[in-house]
Amino acid sequence: MRWTSLLLSLAVVIGLAVYFAPRGEAPAPVVDGEAPAPTPAAAAEAAPEVAPVAVLVLTVTAEETADRLLVPGRTSAIRRVSIAAETDGLVVSEPRRRGARIAAGEVLCRIDPGSRQAQLAEALARREKARADAAAAESLSAKGFTAETTRIARQAELEAAQAAVDLIRLDIARLEIRAPFDGILETDTAELGARLGLGDVCATLTDLTRLRATGYVSEQVVDRITPGGPASVRLVNGAQAEGSVTYISRSADEDTRTYEVEITLDNADGRLRAGMTAELRIDLAPERAHKVPQSALTLDDDGRLGLRLAEETATGHHARFVPVSILRDEPDGLWVRGLPETARVIAVGQEFVRDGRPIRPSEITWDELG
């Protein structure tokens, strides 16, 4: 019984092997000297090429276009000075409150003169004595009655006495601390009765007739900014102002690798405030670029952003990918660089073709694209 089961299993295996064994194809007979009929594999290889893909093509030409760079930043006062005392003494003037408008030359703090007038009187008396001594020495020296060195010494004493008078007069002039320019008080002036020492602050004055707006730009665009070129600023509160580029840093920030750019703004009417968040709008040098539909952009297999163009060759029309960079975004399209002077951009169907794929292009216009 056991040998019978083994023989039956062996017979089944041999039968399956014979059934599934590959069979060679018989050669096709040659009839009247003609070539044999092609096999199915050969017929597949001889099949026609892939049919062209129907696409819509928009022809675009390069145009001169000006770009505008948008940079976040903030405003600040061009002039903000803490005005300090250049002599010491008690304040004898009433304080001015912050926010007050100050004219150039207006007194901010007045210091008690103390004994300075008496010191001036003493210095004037010493000068008169020195002048008399110098005149007498000059006369005696001319007659030969005194040495030349005596005349020189008396003249030196006169000059020293005059210097003492000048120093006291200068100290007296510094008793009145005046505004160096038109501006607005950022702090109260020193209080009546307060004592100011040399270098103590009387008040802080800000000039808001002109403002600076500062931002930072990347390495890729800094060379396209022109010193003195037009620019504008839009503040977070909606206020806008025109200005010009007055400063471009020559060295990058060590951490961000960006360059500082400064715009100077006219603020004679006082509409703008210092310290506000702002958007700097800097006009860049014009360059030639193409305006294309935003929907025409695509990516290649390497993830590069670009467009597919319809190119005509000896064998027909084929698709070709061209990488581009975006210059500016507008509501009705994009301005890009990187295309030839005139380009036939595949505006519809670009996602269904690859480089070298045959296409059947049909022209389309901007109006038809909608």
UniProtKB/TrEMBL annotation:
List, for all copies, the residue spans of the domain called CusB-like beta-barrel: 217-282
Coiled-coil region list: 120-178
The record, for SUPFAM superfamilies, names:
HlyD-like secretion proteins (SSF111369)
Q: What Pfam families does the database record attribute to this sequence?
A: Beta-barrel_RND_2
Q: Does the keyword Coiled coil apply?
A: yes
Sorted alphabetically, the keyword list is:
Coiled coil
Family listed: Belongs to the membrane fusion protein (MFP) (TC 8.A.1) family.
List the NCBIfam families: RND_mfp (TIGR01730)
Question: What's the protein here called?
Answer: Multidrug efflux RND transporter periplasmic adaptor subunit VexE
Give the source lineage, highest ranks first.
Bacteria, Pseudomonadati, Pseudomonadota, Alphaproteobacteria, Rhodobacterales
